[in-house]
Amino acid sequence: MAAVCALAASIVPGGAHAQGRLDARYVVTLAGLPIGTGNWVIDISDDRYTAAASAKTTGLLRMFADGQGTSASRGAVKHGDLVPASYSSSITTDKSTEELRITLAAGNVKDFAIEPPSPPQPDRIPVTDAHKRGVVDPMSGALNHVVGSGELIGPAACHHKAAIFDGRMRYDLKLAYKRMDTVRAEKGYQGPAVVCTLYFVPIAGYVPQRKAIRYLVAQRDMEVWLVPIAGTRVMVPFRVTVPTPLGIGVLEATDFVTAAMPRTSAAGTKTQ
């Protein structure tokens, strides 16, 4: 489900820089059965941002595959935009551990490494240097910038396409406005959500004949429900739904605690 989420940046009315924080907990279910949990913490200040997530398998899935993982992204806030600088992830199962590192500058991949490296596959569409320009990492890609100073929680939140490089694949995630709805976390956010249809468009680094890729490309019923991080114009997923052959896969927040943070002056003192 992690790759389902994607987008980037932040501006507030009147050109002032935003500061906000999110502390969220998610549950993943498949056909109504719990299969995983995760936590996501995001901090956005005047000149930098950080995002970190952790997840693990739960329930019946642990009988077949026990796994856990962490990922993190950091970068600068420039003229209101989030500009990623680095991304890392570590995924451990009962059979192996994979480590990924990506370094970016001005939207371009400067370096990346995966350990252990992926085995060669002749049918895989190669990722070229051109594919690694004008991209964001998967974590930064889950932060959706609503441009300007108009209505935040509305159709404009779905006017976005994210160009993502995840260390193996280069793909686009496109949103289209579907409807408005409401959400209610057990702890934290209660209120309106913008529901967007989510489209997956592979560009490079994938095997075209692979069934999972063809299935995702053909999907027209994937949805992401976006809500704001307080104090910013950044929208993030509260809920994601993906139809699968085994039933509907759902990632949904149970806790979604978000707060605007006091601005900090150059001297380091808090301002209102």
Number of helical elements: 1
Q: How many structural domains can be distinguished in the coordinates?
A: 1
| Shape by Cα distribution | globular
| Average predicted local confidence, pLDDT | 87
Number of strands: 17
Assembly context of the chains: single chain
Helix content: under 10%
First-residue to last-residue Cα separation: 38 Å
Structural class: mainly beta
Order of helices and strands: EEEEEEEEEEEEHEEEEE
Main beta sheet: 15 strands, mixed
Question: Could you characterize what this model shows?
Answer:
With 272 residues, the protein is an all-beta fold. It has one domain. It contains one helix and 17 strands. Strand 9 (161-165) and strand 10 form a beta hairpin. The N and C termini lie far apart (38 Å). Residues 1-17 have low confidence and may be disordered.
Offer a quick outline of the entry.
This protein is mainly β and 272 residues long. Helix content is 3%, strand content 55%.
Which features characterize this protein?
272 residues; 15-stranded mixed sheet; 1 helix; 17 strands
Describe the protein's topology.
Elements: E1 20-30, E2 33-44, E3 48-57, E4 67-78, E5 81-93, E6 97-105, E7 108-115, E8 144-145, E9 161-165, E10 170-184, E11 187-188, E12 190-204, H1 211-218, E13 223-228, E14 234-244, E15 247-260, E16 263-264, E17 270-271
Parallel strand pairs: 11-15
Antiparallel strand pairs: 1-2, 1-15, 2-3, 3-4, 4-5, 5-6, 6-7, 8-14, 9-10, 10-12, 12-13, 13-14, 14-15, 16-17
